[in-house]
Structures are given as structure tokens and as C-alpha cells.
């Protein structure tokens, strides 16, 4: 599902492979690093970390560093001693904490983003790392996403193992990220203890100073001892509802307000299931592009050739994978227009829209465009989809994807704010989809950082915005036409309550049940579409059909 988070213009930056060395240096890097992919723990050479300064203040580079000059241009110092994926993960976590990076899949070794990523690494650590292979990229993704998901749980334990609380509160940011990585590897990845300690201590010593490495060593060894004796200092679930929610928020690593809200509306058992789902490694779904003449069997055959394990979905156009996204990207399956990454929950929203050949459809908050493309493909070359969005850059990407899918003759992009466009436009459409900006509470397993970027107060702002956008979208529906309201939230305030409030303001619209458009297990008692992570193993989503009267 495409998470529509405030602000509307947000764009998820992606990062790929790092800056490459010249041919001779990269060859040396490969020889020094050993064969890739043979061990979960990072490879390293035994030896002392490099001296940070020598005579006259000039740094002494030990053999594990490489530098090269071309005229007056300085090529970055490459450190072959530290764990490369951990160094990149630490910097990415540092940037994510500052709100300057998104926790997401690394891209398919895109040169621009890769060079940018390694530029951050070099500026932060004072050195760069070698080229990351596919295994390294996968490890960066797993470590960053997992560490962010479990941040509250990990930080509680780090603070508990510090000699004083102020040691934790005053800890320098990079040191904290290195510790978080070590804790996540020990507690959730079960990486061999010697590798976790040695590699993270080495990174702290080289990137910071010997004393930082000593602290990492002491704290990680304390953690290992407590884990081995099953005596981790976790909070007890006791006291009143508020106290229990605080304890659960630490154990399951979620904001307290989310825990309290879910226990209140879902019950404790269902809330715990939901948090477990959010903390699990997500699967990804691929939708085959039938417009280009491909079938699901074609996609399955390509996945088998790539040795990517898959499961067939309950939707005919979809398959699901848990690992192997890098292989899919690098094989060019998306670029050649064979498939798109899209959750089935989004596919069911399109089923609720039910695009028919010859119809005119408006997608009001269209970017990044997954539903736009799917709706256009359902028109069988007859009809039009107008894709409106406030973000010009994302619209450009949407249209590039439309061209790749041979749908650019069906899709027209409109750059603008829906609220202003609705006031100025006289156009009316058979169907209008408003996939509204929302809290994204149904997609927390895929958006690991989103839970920490949401406050309870955000719901009030979002509800106001959703009402505004619904009012605007409704004016674009022709008499007898249909307005579809959808979110990737599981919160009633953003879903059913918005529909109820809208109908009260607009009696010319009547809710229409989604029976016949989606399987019965996804239909609520009120006739709306709703997918639940815990019940359906899909992203959480909601959709309602609202028919406009003829008068």
C-alpha cells in the first residue's frame, strides 16, 4: 500500500551502492575482503587499528587504508579494516535520527544515490568503505530497518547497562548508533557474539577513538552475559492501564500512545499481535503488468530463474516475496515493465474502484502512482485516468513508470493542490479516487521509521485535511458517479468516522457496499473494504464507495 504521510510532498529518498575506487584500488579491496556472502559476520583482518596521527600531525595510514591522488584532487581514503556494511548502517541510522534519510530498501546500485550515500559516510566517519556487494546491501537494509523498529526496546536496555543515566543521555550520536547495531545483532539477528563485539568495537575505535571502543566492548559484553543467563532487565507489565502500556511500549518498541489506542479499540491480545506483525520482516508483493502482455506465469518463471522464493497471491496479478528484492531490481523486471511493487491491499482498493473500459477516472493524490497504473491497466486501452498530485517530482516519476508500462496514452498528469484544482476545474469524472494522506498505521511493518515520526496530535491535523480533501474531491464527481475514499490506516477515526462525517455534510452521496468487488472476508459490517495485518497478512487499508445522486 502506498503510505500517504504528511506532508503531501514527501519523497522517499533511496540509496544504492557506494562510490567505487579506481580499478587497481577496487581490486585490492576485493582481495582484502575475502569471498562475499560466506558468513553472516563481517570479515576483517586481525591487527591494530590505524594510528590517527603521526609525526607533524600527518595521519599515518596503515596498509588497510588506500588513498590516491590525481593532480590536486584527493580520492577518498578507503578503510578496509572496519565492517563495511556496519559503517554504512551506522551513518544511515545517524541521518535517519536527524530526519535526513528514510529507512527503506537500498536501490539497485544507482550511481547517483550510491555516491551521495558514500559522501555522507566519508564526511561523518572520516573515511569511505569499499564497494558493497549484494550481501552487504541486504545486511544494511536488515540492520537499519530492524534497529529502527526496535529502537525503544534497545535504548531501554542500553540505558539500563550504562553506569549512570547521564552516560546514556549524554552519549554522542554515532556511538549510540554503533551500540544500537550491536544490540540488535545480538538480540534479534543472533549473529555470533565474537563477530558483533569485535566488529562494533573496531568501528567505534576507528570512527571515534579507542575509549569509545572500550565502552562498546564493556556494554556489549554485559548484554551477552545477561542474555546467556536470561536476565535482561525488562520492565514488568503491572499497575494501571497507563503503566502497563508504558511497559508494553518498551517490550514491543512502539510509542505509548499507539499502544494505549490499540488496546482500547482492538483489545490487548489483538494489539500485541499487531505490534508483533509491525516488528516482523515485511514481505513485498509484485503485480504483473498485463498491459505489456505478461502473465503471472511469466513473472513466476523469471523469479524461478533468479532463484527468488515466491508465493502466489489470492489476487491473480500478484506474487509475494520475502527476500530477493535486490535480485528483482537488478534483473530489470521493473524497468522493463514486467511488474510493479505493490501490496495486495492496494490492489483491492483498485477492485473497489472497479475501473471499466471507457470511463474517466480522477486519482486525486496519485503519487507514487501504483493505483494509478493498476486502474489504467484495467481500462483495456479505452478511457482516461487523470493523475493529480501536489508534488511535481513524484508526478514525473509516475509518468516515467506509465511510459514503461505502455500506459502513458491513458494517464494524464495534473500538477496542483486538489483543494485549489477542485475550485477552478469544471471537469467531472465517472469515478474519483481519493487515496488520502493518512497516519500510515496500516503499513508500519514496511515503514519502520513511521512509528517514531507520528504523534497523537497528528491525527487531529490529518482528520481535518482528510475532510477538506473529501469535500474537494466530491465536487469532481459527475451525477450518478462514484467517489472512492481510501487510506492505508487501520484507525476508525481516519476511516469509518470520516465517511460518516462526509455523508452528513453531503447528503447527495450514499455509501454503497463493496460486496462483489472484494472477497467477503475483507468486507466490514457496514459494507466497507478493510484489510487487517493480523487477520489477512496484508498491509492495513480501508476503502468506501460513495454514489452521487443524479440530481
Task: Walk me through the structure.
The structure is a single chain. By secondary structure, the chain is α/β, with parallel strands linked by helices. Helix content is 44%, strand content 13%. Strands 9, 10, 11, 12, 13, 14, 15 and 16 form an eight-stranded mixed β-sheet that branches. Strand 2 and strand 3 form a beta hairpin. Mean pLDDT is 86; it is low at 3-73 and 105-112.
Low-pLDDT windows of residues: 3-73, 105-112
The number of helical segments is 21
Instruction: Report on the biggest sheet.
Output: 8 strands, mixed
Shape: globular
Structural class: alpha/beta
Overall number of strands = 16
Determine the fraction of residues in helical runs and give it as a percent range.
Answer: 40-55%
The Rg value, from CA coordinates, equals: 25 Å
Separation of termini? 35 Å
SS strand fraction: 5-15%
- Average pLDDT confidence is 86
Describe this structure in a few short sentences.
With 551 residues, the chain is of the alpha/beta class.
Amino acid at each position: 500500500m502506498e503510505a500517504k504521510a504528511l506532508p503531501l510532498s514527501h519523497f522517499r529518498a533511496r540509496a544504492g551502492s557506494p562510490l567505487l575506487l579506481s580499478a587497481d584500488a577496487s581490486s585490492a579491496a576485493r582481495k582484502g575482503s575475502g569471498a562475499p556472502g560466506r558468513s553472516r559476520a563481517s570479515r576483517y583482518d586481525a591487527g591494530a587499528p590505524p594510528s590517527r596521527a603521526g609525526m607533524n600531525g600527518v595521519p599515518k595510514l596503515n596498509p588497510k587504508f588506500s588513498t590516491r591522488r590525481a593532480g590536486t584532487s584527493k580520492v577518498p581514503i578507503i578503510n578496509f579494516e572496519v565492517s563495511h556494511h556496519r559503517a554504512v548502517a551506522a551513518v544511515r541510522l545517524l541521518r535517519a535520527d536527524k530526519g535526513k534519510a528514510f529507512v527503506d530498501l537500498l536501490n539497485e546500485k544507482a550511481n547517483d544515490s550510491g555516491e551521495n550515500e558514500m559522501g555522507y559516510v566519508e564526511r561523518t566517519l572520516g573515511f569511505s568503505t569499499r564497494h558493497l556487494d549484494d550481501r552487504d546491501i541486504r545486511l544494511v537494509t536488515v540492520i537499519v530497518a530492524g534497529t529502527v523498529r526496535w529502537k525503544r526496546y534497545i535504548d531501554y536496555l542500553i540505558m539500563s547497562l550504562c553506569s549512570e543515566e547521564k552516560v546514556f543521555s549524554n552519549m554522542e550520536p554515532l556511538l549510540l548508533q554503533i551500540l544500537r547495531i550491536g544490540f540488535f545483532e545480538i538480540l534479534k539477528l543472533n549473529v555470533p557474539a565474537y563477530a558483533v563485539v569485535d566488529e562494533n568495537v573496531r568501528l567505534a575505535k576507528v570512527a571515534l577513538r579507542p575509549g569509545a571502543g572500550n565502552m562498546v566492548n564493556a556494554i556489549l559484553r554485559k548484554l551477552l552475559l545477561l542474555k546467556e543467563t536470561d536476565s535482561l532487565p525488562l520492565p514488568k507489565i503491572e499497575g494501571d492501564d497507563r503503566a502497563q502500556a508504558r511497559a508494553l511500549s518498551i517490550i514491543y518498541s512502539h510509542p505509548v500512545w499507539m499502544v494505549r489506542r490499540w488496546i482500547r479499540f482492538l483489545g490487548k491480545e489483538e494489539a500485541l499481535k499487531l505490534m508483533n506483525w509491525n516488528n516482523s520482516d515485511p514481505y513485498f508483493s509484485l503485480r504483473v503488468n498485463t498491459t505489456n502482455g505478461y502473465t503471472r506465469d511469466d513473472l513466476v518463471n523469471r523469479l524461478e530463474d533468479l532463484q527468488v522464493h515466491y508465493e502466489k497471491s489470492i489476487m491473480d496479478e500478484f506474487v509475494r516475496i520475502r527476500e530477493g528484492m535486490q535480485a528483482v531490481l537488478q534483473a530489470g523486471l521493473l524497468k522493463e515493465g514486467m511488474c510493479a511493487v505493490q501490496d495486495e491491499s492496494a490492489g483491492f482498493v483498485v477492485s473497489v474502484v472497479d475501473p471499466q473500459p471507457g470511463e474517466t477516472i480522477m486519482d486525486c493524490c496519485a503519487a507514487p502512482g501504483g493505483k494509478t497504473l493498476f486502474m489504467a491497466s484495467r481500462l483495456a486501452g479505452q478511457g482516461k485516468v487523470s493523475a493529480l498530485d501536489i508534488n511535481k517530482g513524484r508526478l514525473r516519476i509516475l509518468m516515467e513508470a506509465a511510459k514503461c508500462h505502455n500506459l502513458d496514452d491513458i494517464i494524464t498528469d495534473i500538477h496542483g493542490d486538489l483543494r485549489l484544482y477542485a475550485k477552478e476545474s469544471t471537469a467531472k469524472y465517472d469515478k474519483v479516487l481519493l487515496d488520502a494522506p493518512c497516519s500510515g498505521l496500516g503499513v508500519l511493518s514496511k515503514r519502520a521509521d513511521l512509528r517514531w515520526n507520528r504523534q497523537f496530535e497528528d491525527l487531529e491535523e490529518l482528520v481535518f485535511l482528510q475532510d477538506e480533501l473529501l469535500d474537494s474531491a466530491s465536487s469532481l464527481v459527475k451525477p450518478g458517479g462514484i467517489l472512492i475514499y481510501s487510506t492505508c490506516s487501520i484507525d476508525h477515526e481516519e476511516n469509518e468516522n470520516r465517511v460518516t462525517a462526509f455523508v452528513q455534510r453531503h447528503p447527495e452521496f450514499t455509501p454503497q457496499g463493496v460486496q462483489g468487488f472484494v472477497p467477503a472476508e475483507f468486507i466490514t459490517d457496514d459494507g466497507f473494504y478493510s484489510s487487517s495485518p493480523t487477520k489477512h497478512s496484508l498491509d492495513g487499508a480501508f476503502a468506501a464507495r460513495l454514489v452521487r445522486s443524479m440530481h
